[in-house]
């Protein structure tokens, strides 16, 4: 009998633990990545302008643009600067930062979480009742500005619907989270934007922030 009771208590304790809701901070959704190391010499304003000119002209294939690139490249070489070497380093730096922005963690996959944020409505079931929205850490993110990193955007599904007062007012969202990196064109407020989201969340409760 004692063994039966002990087994029951153990199972009950595990069940309570398994359904425990974890309160997350947005920083919890940013996985640790290696810092992007880039060492460049100090450049004068003129040298920076030259590099920008080479970057712009390299998009064209006209005889004039090629001739100008050679002239600028030669001028930079006199200063000991290899234009294309530095532009290649710049591209690698941008790519590394992009990878870091799109990195997500699966540490909380399948867990019930609670997180505060600001919602950006995508779909409505009634006037100002949103059933599908983005949750972001900063008010107005994704609206008339570049979106936050993917690991700072959660795509939320809430069939019950949440009555929105204003997108400037924070909310608490509770539900099951899953890491799910995806890019798509979304209609946000008054236009379509290409947004990459890092997580999806099946919400069971959305309430005003207190």
From TrEMBL:
- Which Gene3D superfamilies does this chain map to? Protein of unknown function (DUF3299)
Work out whether the entry's keyword set contains Oxidoreductase.
Answer: no
Q: What is this protein's name?
A: Lipoprotein
Annotated membrane-spanning segments are none
Please list which residues make up the signal peptide: 1-18
What keywords is this UniProt entry annotated with?
Signal
Superkingdom of origin organism = Bacteria
Q: Which Pfam families match?
A: DUF3299
């Amino acid at each position: 009998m004692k063994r039966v009771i002990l087994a029951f208590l153990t199972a009950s304790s595990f069940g309570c633990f398994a359904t425990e809701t974890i309160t997350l901070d947005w920083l919890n959704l940013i996985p640790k990545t290696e810092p992007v190391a880039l060492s460049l010499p100090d450049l004068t304003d003129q040298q920076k302008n030259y590099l920008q000119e080479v970057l712009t002209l390299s998009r064209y294939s006209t005889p004039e643009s090629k001739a100008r690139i050679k002239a600028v490249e030669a001028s930079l070489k006199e200063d000991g600067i290899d234009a294309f070497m530095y532009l290649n380093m710049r591209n690698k730096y941008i790519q590394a930062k992009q990878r870091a922005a799109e990195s997500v963690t699966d540490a909380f996959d399948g867990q019930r979480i609670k997180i505060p944020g600001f919602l950006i409505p995508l779909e409505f079931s009634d006037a100002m009742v949103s059933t599908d929205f983005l949750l972001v850490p900063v008010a107005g993110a994704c609206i008339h500005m570049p979106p936050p990193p993917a690991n700072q955007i959660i795509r939320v599904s809430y069939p019950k619907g949440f009555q929105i007062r204003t997108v400037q007012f924070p909310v608490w969202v509770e539900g099951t989270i899953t890491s799910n990196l995806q890019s798509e064109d979304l209609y946000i407020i008054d236009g379509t934007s290409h947004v990459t989201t890092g997580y999806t969340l099946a919400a069971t409760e959305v309430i005003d922030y207190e």
